[in-house]
Design brief:
mainly alpha, 102 residues, globular
Length: 102
């Protein structure tokens, strides 16, 4: 099990360029941490986050996010074996029609 200070120390501080990482509480900022690590992180950091929060919690947070880039969305869908329709960002994207190009 990874302790709270350890998880923040093991992650790349460049992912949190807009916040003071020393003041972050890993439990209160789990949505921010999961978002940044899955969007920008490497496999080792993704595994650390899953180990710290648990795969169920990570999957729930990711399913409720309003935006995930397409590559991250497909990766997470395959990693946790969750259908794309379960993700809020996927359903939301389906509701917004694309611009019509000539």
């Amino acid at each position: 099990m990874i302790d709270q200070p350890d998880i923040l120390r093991l992650l790349n501080p460049q992912y949190f360029w807009d916040v003071d990482i020393s003041r972050l509480n890993a439990d209160k900022a789990k949505r921010l941490i999961i978002d940044r690590v899955f969007g920008l992180g490497k496999a080792k950091e993704i595994n650390l986050v899953i180990e710290y929060y648990g795969s169920g919690t990570v999957a729930d947070v990711l399913k409720r996010m309003s935006y995930l880039d397409p590559k991250t969305l497909n990766f997470v869908s395959k990693l946790f074996k969750i259908s794309l329709q379960s993700f809020k960002c996927y359903r939301r994207k389906q509701l917004i029609p694309p611009h019509w190009n000539s």
